[in-house]
Amino acid sequence: MSTITLYSNSWCPFCRRAKMLLDHKSAEYNEINIDAVPSARQEMIDRSGRTSVPQIFIDELHVGGCDDLFALEQQDKLDSLLAN
Question: Where is the Glutaredoxin domain (predicted)?
Answer without folding.
Answer: 4-63
